[in-house]
Amino acid sequence: MSGKTLVGKIIEAHLVKGKCEVGSEVEIRIDQTLCQDATGTMAFLELEAMGVKRVKTELSIQYIDHNTSQMGPENANDHLYLQSVCASKGVLYSRPGNGICHQVHVERYGVPGKTLLGSDSHTPTGGGIGMLAMGAGGLDVALAMAGEPFKLSYPKVCGIRLTGSLKPWVSAKDVILKVLSILGSKGNVGWAVEYFGDGVKTLSVPERATITNMGAELGVTSSVFPSDEATLAFLKAEGRADCWKELKADDDAVYDRVIDIDLGELVPMAACPSNPGNVKTVAEVAGLPVSQVMIGSCTNSSLKDLRMVAAVLRGRTVHPDVELGIAPGSRQVLTMLSLDGGLTNLLAAGCRILESTCGPCIGQGFSPANGTISVRTNNRNFLNRTGTKNDQCYLVSPETAVATALTGKLTDPRTLGIDYPEWKMPQQFLVDDSMVVKPSCGDVEIVRKETIGAPPSVTSVPQDIDGEVLLKLGEKITTDHIMPAGAYLKYRSNIPVYAKYVFECFNESGKPTFAERAAAVRDSGRVGIVVAAESYGQGSSREHAAICPMYLGVRCIIALSIERIHAANLINFGIVPLYFDSACELDKIEQGDTIRIDGIHGQMKDGTSIKATVVKKDGSKIALNLHHNLSAEDVALVLKGGRLA
Ligand code: MIC
Ligand code: SF4
Q1: Quick check: is 15 in a domain?
Q2: Considering only CA atoms, which residue is closest to atom 9 of ligand 1?
Q3: Is the distance from the beta carbon of residue 100 to the nearest atom of ligand 2 less than 6 Å?
Q4: For labelling alongside 556, which of 31, 464, 488, 588 has CA 20 to 30 A away?
């Protein structure tokens, strides 16, 4: 008999349906859910549409952390809607200013061994405290709140054996950047990652959470650490020791792949523009002039990170050519930093203290100047995500970030010649949950101002597809390409307005936009099709990257591969995800061609292979070989127009 992985154990303990065999579809019970405001409005509109009176989970919480710029009434209207709908449905509401969802959730609500589903792709941060935490579209999270199990493909598990301990100035971010350099940011769909080995005990929960957080950039279903003495120490300091239990894989657990990492051999790393998988050592890129440094985001904004930064900046001044912005991950972190004097060091050094929100990470302010380099501790550096066109964003550890802020050049922190500040887990974190509003017991009126729309209506997929190829794309198309966030975040609860910006980054000036072209095809009674190479839909969980194209009449995405959360969102909103049998099939297509799939309903029900025809602009026809990978249930679902139907 071979032993079990921790991922396997947690899935088994929550199994509702299916077999624990790699690749087979399983349904699991979800204990906790989290939403953030940018995806939460749609999730709650969907929950309302389902007629759910009270949520059925052990704990559901809504955080306001993404969209707090409040330029115009839209954000504030969203907050009013969310606070009232949470009160009415039995959901905790974390007010703006309380912190970034993933940071606060680990601090205050994460429980080892529980399942967590969140409408945000970095929900796996919870794996740092031993949860099986997964990102999903808002509709899947709404279903989980309604008490429905969550469906996933039983993952292959990659065991990462950690040995040794990190050297000074090398930190958790360098661990996950190393993992990204090995596994890459595409081709990992269907995998989960599990950390084990002697090195694990040298990492505290905040460090583990940095590592599991950026597992999202690998594209894996989740990343998990065991729950051990270090987990207990963290929970004790949060006053929550009672929810601790020991959790680990069996000693003879069998992994589908094992990667060995000696922590003592790691060096500072950087993800270079414009993908988190584009990793080099900091030494390789050192010396590049930098105009801006940003320390924060759900990846690196814990007390551990910021105490280190404050200690390094003590008595020093930020380089005159650099603007340094710091966004503490939570109100707990910010308050403790102010009590221990760290905040004073930061202010004296010339930092700009930003709100405890996502902010610059999602292009909400602090965009860099054109043609200059921004160095950030965030997890994503997709092109234009900072809010500046053709930006150059490097992702690094807080150690590298602070060293860079001091020198004005990308700097390996080991070359600073400063002693590495020592970190000790506090005996007691400052616990104050007063910014989390508890739900009401009685009737609550849901506040719905005029900028709050309704989920769009859906129709079934036509029996015969006669579609125009609206766009032909390359590999690694992210949901930021599909549905930009930043300045447009405020339109998240208004689909007709937000849909105007679909694929905005590919629009050419003076020519009709993607939205205009798609709507014209839709209004002529045909469907829109988008084709792409590998790893379509990387990045965020935003279901708007499916809802808005669907609203514009896109009914098929054909790619070489599609990322997990995005594929699920497409199905949920009636867009058929199809795959080319090989790269040669993609080569047959150009933008403006027609793709015909006769009898798509029958073809999808009868098997996985799909025969289609490309009709070129001159009328010539080429056979096109496609396939799908959906279960019979999902075939029925997508063809009838998705889950809302
Ligand atoms: C992101 O980091 O891209 C976001 C913004 O947090 C998204 C969610 C969203 O688009 O609202 C994510 O990671 O899922
Ligand atoms: Fe917020 Fe950035 Fe984390 Fe997304 S990645 S949750 S935008 S901090």
Answers
A1: yes
A2: 542
A3: yes
A4: 488
